Amino acid sequence: MKSSKQHTILKTQNLNIGYHTKNGTNTIARDLNIEITSGELVGLVGANGIGKSTLLRTITKMQTALSGQVFINNSSINNISLKELSQELSLVLTEPLQTKNLSVFELVALGRHPYTNWIGSLTKEDTFQINKALDLIGITDLKDYRCFELSDGQLQKAMIARALAQDTKLIILDEPTTHLDMYHKAYILKLLQDLTKETGKTILFSSHEIDLAIQLCNTMIVMTEDQVHCNEPCVLIEDGVFDSLFPKDLISFDKESGRFKINK
Amino acid sequence: MEQTNTVFKLPFMILSILTVVCFLVNISFGSVYIPLSQTISTFTGSSEVEVWNVIVMDYRLPKAITAILVGSGLGISGLLMQTLFRNPLAGPFVLGISSGASLGVAIIVLGSGLFSISLATVLVSKWGIIIAASLGSFLVLLAVLAISSRVRDTMAILIIGLMFGSITAALVSVLSYFSSAEQLQQYIFWGFGNLSNLSWNEILIFLVIYLTGLMLSIISIKNLNTLLLGDRYARSLGISLKQSRLIIILATSLLAGGITAFAGPIAFVGLAIPHLTRQLFKTSNHKILLPAVILMGAIVMLLCDLVAQVPSSELTLPINAITALVGAPVVIWILVKQRKMMF
User: Fold this and answer.
1) How far is CA A253 from the centre of its chain?
2) According to the model, what pLDDT value does residue A175 have?
3) What is the mean pLDDT of residues A41-51?
4) Among candidate residues B258, B269, B260, B257, the one with its CA nearest the CA of residue B308
C-alpha cells in the first residue's frame, strides 16, 4: 500500500553489473529490477563476493553499468553530472577516513560542499543544515572534538551526519556497521530507521546484519547466486528467500524467529 | 568556517608580526653593519651613507624578498602535495620537479664541453641556467603527467615521480663522471641553492610565476578540503578528480619549478613547513592552513637565510645545508611528539 505522497526515488531497469576484463566481460549480477520509494529504509544483504559493493558502486556512478539503466528521481544517472548527483545522493563508505585531523564540525561541514561558493564559505543556511544534522544524529556535543579523538561508533555517526548535511533525498551507506560492537550495530541501524521517519529521506545500506535488517527495514534487497529479490522482509521470509542466501551445510534460516541458526 | 576564523585570529596576528620582524632583522644583518633605523630610511633613499642605500636596495632587499617567495612557495607546494597524495612524506619535489631541474642544469653545466666555446659561455650564464632548470623540470613533469594520466591511483603518481627522480639522478651521475672538476664544482654550487643572486628584473618574473601558482592554489582550497576525505568521497561531493588534480599539480609545478629555477633546489622546507604549521594551528582546513603556511614559510626562510649569512662575518653558508639542518630536526621532533604524522 503506497500512499500518494510516496514516489520512486531509485529504480534500476534490466541492470547488468560487473567488470570489463581483458578476456571480455565478467558479469556479477544480471537483470536487476529494483524499485525503492521515498522515505524507506532499505537493507541490501547477500553473501560475501555476491556483488553488493559492485551494485552500490554502479548506482552511485562510481562504475559504469554493463547494460541497463539506473534512475535516480526519475532521471537516468547517465544524464546527471557529478555535481548534480551530489545533490541527489550522499554516501557513507567503508573506506577509513583519510585524515582524522578535522573537527567533527568541519567534517560535517564538508557535506555542504555542493552548495557553498568557490572558497567554501558557509552561509546561514549551511550552518543551519550542519547543526540540524549534528542534532538529528545526537552528536552536537562532539562537534569540537577532532576525529582522531572519537570512537569507531562516534566516527560512524559523524560520517552519517556529514551525509545528512549534504541534504540529499537518498543516502547510501556501504556496510555502516562493520567494526562496531553489537550494541552500536543495532544503534546505528535504528538511527537510520529513525532518520527515514523523521526526515522522509530514503536510506539504502548494505549489511551483514540480516536479522537486524529484517526487524528494521521497510524493504530488503537480497542478492543470491541466481536472482536478486527486492521486497518487504515478511514477504521475503514467506517466500523462503533467506534460505537460499548461504550454503545450507552450516546455518539455516528460522522463519519463526527471523534469524539464522547453526545446524545442530 | 565562521567559528574557526575567530579562534585563529591571534596566531595569525602573531605570525604576521613575526614575519615583519624577521624581514627587518634579515635586511639589517649582513657582512656590513647598518643600524636598523638607517636600514629603514634606505627605503626612501635617505640613509646617511650612500653605500648603505646600495647595499640594502640592491642586495639585501631582493634577497629578503626572494627568501619570502621561496619559503612560502615551497610551503604551499608541500601542503598541496601532502593533501593530494594523502601522504605526510610528500613534498614539492615528489613529482620530479627538482630532479628535472637538476638534469637540465647538469646537461648545460657538465655537458658544456660538448658545445662550442661561445655557445657554452652563453649557456652557462645565469639565464642559461634558469632556462635549463625550468625546461628540465617542465619536461620531467610533463612525462610524469603523461604517464600518470593513464593511472587512476594517486599513489601511483607518487611512485612514478620518484622513479623519474631516480632516472634523472642516474643521468646526472653519468654526466658528472665525464666532466671536469671545474664543471662539477659549478654544478655543485648550483645545488647549494642561492637566494642572493637575483636582480629586480628577475624577481619580477619570479613574482609573476609565484602569483600564478598562488592563485591556482587559492581556487583549489575548497577541493583540497574535500580531498581530505578521500577520492571517492570527493567524487560523491561532485568534484571532478581529474580537473582538480590537474590544477593542484599545475600550481605546485609553477611554484616549485619557479623556485628551483631561480634559487636552486632547496631541500626540506616544502616538507617541513606544512607539518610545522599543522602542529601550530591544529587543523587540516586549507582555508586556515594556506595563509598560515605562507607566513610560516616566509619566517623560516628569512631565519635560515639569516643563519646562512653568519651575522657580522664575511662568511656565507650554503642555504640548502641550513634548510636541511633546520628542517630535518623539525620533522623528527614532530614524529617524536605526535608518534604519528597527520595531514
Assistant:
1) 24
2) 93
3) 93
4) B269
C-alpha A201/C-alpha A217 separation (Å) is 13
Whether B29 maps to a domain, the answer reads yes
* Domain housing A132: 95-167
- Half-sphere exposure (CA, 13 Å, Cβ side) for A201? 27
A84, A85, A120: residue with CB nearest B221: A120
Q: Which of B2, B226, B232 sits opposite A122 (nearest CB)?
A: B2
Q: What is the pLDDT of residues B278-337, one digit of tens each?
A: 888 888 899 999 999 999 999 999 999 998 887 667 788 899 889 988 888 877 887 787
Q: Are residues A102 and A160 in the same domain?
A: yes
Distance separating alpha carbons of residues B304 and B72, to the nearest angstrom = 13
Residue type, B90: A
A34: left (phi over 0), alpha (psi -120 to 50) or beta: beta
What is the total count of domains within chain B? 1
- The 10 Å Cβ neighbour count of residue B241 is 16
Calpha distance B227→A6 (Å, rounded): 35
Provide the CATH number for the domain around residue B150.
Answer: 1.10.3470.10
DSSP A70: E
Question: Are both A78 and A203 inside the same structural domain?
Answer: yes
* Structure confidence by residue, pLDDT tens digits, B81-92: 999 888 787 888
Q: In whole angstroms, what is the distance from residue A35 CA to residue B203 CA?
A: 63
ipTM rounded to 2 decimals? 0.91
Number of domains in chain A: 2
Q: Which three cell numbers stand for residue A112?
A: 555542504
Check whether residue A45 and residue A123 sit in a common domain. no
On whether any CB of chain A is under 8 Å from the CB of B122, the answer is no
**B321/B258 Cα distance (integer angstroms):** 20
CA distance B235 to chain A (A): 7
Which chain B residues touch A87 with a CB distance below 8 Å?
Answer: 238
